[in-house]
Amino acid sequence: MAGAAETPMMRQYLDLKAQVPDALLLYRMGDFYELFFEDAEVAAATLELTLTSRNKADPDPIPMAGVPYHALDGYLRRLVDAGHKVAIAEQRAAPGSTKILERELVRVVTPGLPWDSAALEGREPCWLAAACAGRDGRMGLAFLDVTTGGLRVTEVEGPHAAAAELSRMDPRELLLPPDLVENEAMERVVQGRALSRAEAGRFDAEAGDRALRGLLGTADLRGFGAEGLGPALGAAGALIAYAREQARVDLSSVRRLVPYAVDRAMVLDESTRRNLEILRPLHGTGRKGTLLGLLDRCNTPMGSRRLRSWLAGPLVEVARIRARQAAVTARCPAAAERGCGPACARWPTSSAWPPASPRAAPTHATWWPCRRPCTPCPASSPICARTPPLPAACRTTRCWMWPKTSTPGCFPSPPPA
């Protein structure tokens, strides 16, 4: 093995591998990305590749496996989904050169820093999280989603509260200093997630403040409400350095810092969320059978991510709850009418009015049944504002109104579907 590893090409490979010792190195050679030594054995087992060897005549040949360059995305996704960190080394000179081609690391792909955001499930966040401890015992947390440009920070009291918040946010990858990797309170959070380590100096609060100001292009962070934060800025700085220096990720999409307070949302521990099947089913994967899967009728991935965050951290302040309800009512007036007001139907203009009985209503009318005895339409109702108030008799029975007409109908029972 020593003779084969001393060739110029293999020396170049070993030099690059030394820069990313904790990653599988995909080394571009012509039309293939090759892996060697233990990387080849791991990739062959994960991707079901044929494991070959370099210099087969050598008494101790070098294990080798490869994937075609045009199929990189699919293989890369499978490696990352299996929890591996993958480094990509590309050729710098054009093929056909008589010299040994120089290669350089162009990207390190991790579960928290994906290669192709278009291939991800857009309705799920892709958080890369960092945590560190401050001098006063407070813990700083930072969360970065490079697919959306989201950057959030918070501070909590002690490692147990930090572990609970990390579990709630459910990051795909954790970046921790050495002292937290072995922390008993963090063990459960670390299990089942990709873990990366960084030196304690990377979590310095002052360095984090400088990194954030440089990234966001601002003289200070007061405009983002981040004054008074300490370890949270250190955690954010560690994320920025990790993404830029090690993973070589462009962070130009990050234009905002969002500090938040954990105590403004209900704390649900991991076992509660799991047993209630709020975001994940008790058995299996996906959304089927969960509260999120039942409620998510959002038109955009952005809306689905927002709904997910609401379910993961329910509000506890009455004023904020009412403000959210008012926002939903303003944006979805039809939903508000279904829940607390008279039912309305889209009455076909070609049909005769008034119907002789409820059962004379056209079967293709769209009905919204009311959920309690109806009352006169509120003046602010977006749907029924053009109709006159209901007769007194309607106040004790079910009512059925058609906005395209000027006369409300009132019947003791609903029409057929």
Write the layout of secondary structure elements.
Elements lengths: L1 H4 L2 H12 L4 E6 L2 E5 H11 L4 E3 L7 E7 L3 H10 L4 E6 L11 E7 L18 E6 L4 E8 L4 E8 H12 L3 E4 L1 H4 L5 H4 L3 E4 L7 H12 L14 H16 L11 E2 L10 H7 L14 H5 L5 H12 L5 H14 L1 H8 L2 E4 L19 E2 L31 E3 L7 E2 L7
Parallel strand pairs: 1-5, 7-10, 9-12, 10-11, 13-15
Antiparallel strand pairs: 1-2, 2-4, 3-4, 5-6, 7-8, 8-9, 13-14, 15-16
Protein traits:
417 residues; alpha/beta; MutS, DNA mismatch repair protein, domain I; Nucleotidyltransferase, domain 5; 4 domains; 6-stranded mixed beta sheet; 16 strands; 31% helix; 18% strand; disordered C terminus
Mind explaining what this structure looks like?
This protein is 31% helix and 18% strand. With 417 residues, the chain is an alpha/beta fold. It has a 6-stranded mixed beta sheet with strand order 3-4-2-1-5-6, with helices on both faces. A 6-stranded mixed beta sheet has the order 11-10-7-8-9-12. Helix 8 crosses helix 9 and helix 13 crosses helix 14. The termini are far apart. The C terminus is likely disordered.
CATH superfamily of the largest domain: MutS, connector domain
- Elements, N to C (H/E): HHEEHEEHEEEEEHEHHEHHEHHHHHEEEE
Number of helices, where a helix is a run of at least 4 consecutive DSSP H or I residues: 14
Give a count of the beta strands, DSSP E runs of length 2 or more. Answer: 16
Strand residue content: 15-25%
CATH classification class of the largest domain: Alpha Beta
Strand arrangement across the biggest beta sheet: 3-4-2-1-5-6
Could you say which overall geometry the principal axes of the C-alpha atoms support?
A: globular
Low-confidence blocks of residues: 338-417
Tell me about the biggest sheet?
A: 6 strands, mixed
Q: Work out the count of structural domains.
A: 4
**Structural category:** alpha/beta
Integer average pLDDT: 77
